[in-house]
Design brief:
Layout: H1 2-21, E1 31-38, E2 41-48, E3 72-80, E4 84-86, E5 89-91, E6 94-101, E7 107-112, E8 128-134, E9 137-151, E10 157-174, H2 178-188, H3 196-205, H4 210-223, H5 228-240, H6 244-260, H7 264-281
Antiparallel strand pairs: 1-2, 2-3, 3-6, 4-5, 4-10, 6-7, 7-8, 9-10
Helix pairs in contact: 3-4, 4-5, 5-6, 5-7, 6-7
Length: 282
């Protein structure tokens, strides 16, 4: 009987310990990874998100004048798949650590190579890639959990925002992909599958070479005469070149094919463009 009781107690203890081992509580500072397509590549940030929980953050939970891992747990990681510039300083593609030193008047932002560092342990100033100062912006609304996000994302520029409490740090990031894209277009033009449509968009939107944009748009339209989106694009280029009559003709052709395709969006866009062209003609 004693032996049976002992076995039962052992089984109960095993089940209790096994159940206990499987209990998972929510992370106090949950990990978040954000990824933003930018230029011809992407930027990725991995960080842990502590919460204020009623405490004063800067000057208390996060002391002023001391190196901060810009989050909780491991130091915040940031990676670039293509070279970028921050405050005019070039940063090669690769993985880095994002450190900050918060201050009442200014924050020091540091991009560092120490990706194996545990928090701020192991930090070496000699591994800094760039370091600069940013004045914090006071926000109207309070951010409870530390937040990193991308904003104002455009083809060549974007902003990385750090928000907590009522503080906002704006880190401007830029990229120059024009030379690389130009080389890709030039190489592709030597093949049988020539990218006239992509070249037209590059020369119009980025290179600002209107004659080349028009030339490539015409070649793209030759292959697809009913491509109403290309015809509207041609009209916009002609408008920029001051060829109002040509722009009206291209837009009218685009309108006819848009109606044939029953594409309401392009019908409206052509109507809007034609109103603008009529005003210019007065």
């Amino acid at each position: 009987m004693k032996r049976l009781l002992f076995i039962c107690a052992a089984i109960a203890l095993f089940i209790f310990n096994d159940t206990k081992a499987q209990v998972k509580l929510p992370a106090a500072s949950p990990l978040q990874t954000i990824r933003q397509e930018f230029g011809l590549g992407n930027i990725e940030v991995a960080y842990s998100r502590p919460a204020a929980k009623g405490h004063r953050v800067f000057g208390d939970l996060v002391p002023y004048g001391k190196l901060w891992r810009t989050g909780d747990n491991a130091a915040t990681r940031i990676s670039f798949s293509e070279p970028v510039e921050i405050y005019g300083r070039k940063i090669d593609s690769g993985k880095y650590v994002l450190y900050t030193i918060p201050g009442e008047e200014n924050w020091q932002v540091i991009i560092n190579r120490g990706i194996k560092n545990i928090g701020v342990e192991g930090y070496k100033e000699s591994e800094d890639v760039v370091s600069f100062f940013i004045e914090p912006i006071k926000t109207k609304n309070k951010t409870e959990s530390f937040t990193i996000e991308f904003a104002e994302v455009r083809p060549e520029t974007c902003e990385l925002h750090l928000l907590w409490e009522k503080k906002l740090i704006v880190i401007p990031i830029s990229t120059n992909f024009k030379d690389k894209l130009r080389r890709q277009i030039d190489a592709a033009m030597l093949t049988d599958n020539k990218p006239y449509w992509q070249a037209a968009q590059f020369y119009f939107e980025y290179d600002k070479n209107l004659s080349k944009a028009l030339e490539n748009t015409n070649k793209a339209i030759d292959a697809r005469p009913k491509a109403y989106w290309m015809l509207l694009y041609k009209a916009k280029i002609q408008k920029e070149m001051g060829d109002i009559a040509g722009a009206k003709k291209s837009s009218e052709t685009s309108m006819a094919f848009s109606k044939e395709a029953k594409n309401e969006d392009y019908i409206k866009m052509n109507e809007k463009l034609q109103k603008e062209l009529n005003k210019r003609n007065r």
